Amino acid sequence: MAIRNIATRLITRNFSSSSVVPQKGTRPFQVAIDGPAASGKSTTAKMVAQRLGFDYIDTGAFYRCVTLAALSKGIDPSNPSQALQISNLAESSHIGLKTIFSTTSASKSSLPTTKVFLDSKDVSFEIRTGTVSKHVSAVAAIGPVREAVLQKVRDMGATSISQESNSGRDGLVMDGRDIGTVVLPNADLKIFLVADSRVRAERRLQELARSGSKEEVLDIETVQKDLERRDELDRTREVSPLRKADDAVELDTSLLTIEGQVDAIVQEVHRRQQAASSSSSQ
Ligand code: CDP
């Protein structure tokens, strides 16, 4: 308990001051999962969190909420003259996440669901529509928007870790584009997921079909082109571009099942936890 409290203080300080960065092994285990659009990050991250009893934060949901907030105010995110207004919205919006994990061992392989709240309204479905997806990378490229989101994500990370002794969660899994490079630069395990863009387009179409989306059914070429356009924007933007951290493990999921990639990550977490505990007991 005492060690956990010290760890909590350390991580809280990390989130409020960039000069204090807790070292690996001195706080709850952190897993950073990055990768291009539809590479399976959020499904993998949620299932890894469920298997390990960790908390989960979907950082893409924050950028999607800001995009939705802008669109619902009639702001055109692709118009650069609107950047200040969008940044103000990013600062003033209240964004909340609630992930529901299954607690029975029989349903351990079931997919946890994350509810997303924008100013207390449940927008879980609205932030995944094609219109939001189309504009989100332009919003995520605005520097002050990223600063505002980074602060919110760090606050949420600090809160989830400090409440963790109540929730019984032992660590944190975060997914996005800049987790290993910017948000959690000292993460204990960094994964960079990649997959062929055709495979990713097929997965995105299946996901849309499963969600019962009422939007116009898109063909695979259109979905693939949109993913590639978004990846290009994410990779080439000036602030926190999508890139693999030097110490990240790359996992190509083109031929892996979701269970296969979750198993690989869970095993790697166990391996690193054992290595850390045997080196600290020496
Ligand atoms: O689910 P999908 O991979 O399509 O996207 P997402 O994770 O929901 O993220 C939506 C968009 O937010 C991405 O295309 C990025 O432009 C942006 N994003 C980012 O810039 N940095 C993050 N840490 C997370 C998302």
From TrEMBL:
It catalyses: CMP + ATP = CDP + ADP; dCMP + ATP = dCDP + ADP. Residues 31-270 form the Cytidylate kinase domain. Its EC number is 2.7.4.25. One of its GO terms (biological process) is nucleobase-containing compound metabolic process. The lineage of its organism: Eukaryota, Fungi, Fungi incertae sedis, Mucoromycota, Mortierellomycotina. Pfam families: Cytidylate_kin (PF02224). GO terms for molecular function: ATP binding; dCMP kinase activity. The keyword ATP-binding applies. This is (d)CMP kinase. Keywords: ATP-binding, Kinase, Nucleotide-binding, Transferase. Belongs to the cytidylate kinase family. Type 1 subfamily. InterPro entries: Cytidylate_kin, Cytidylate_kinase_dom, P-loop_NTPase. The keyword Signal does not apply.
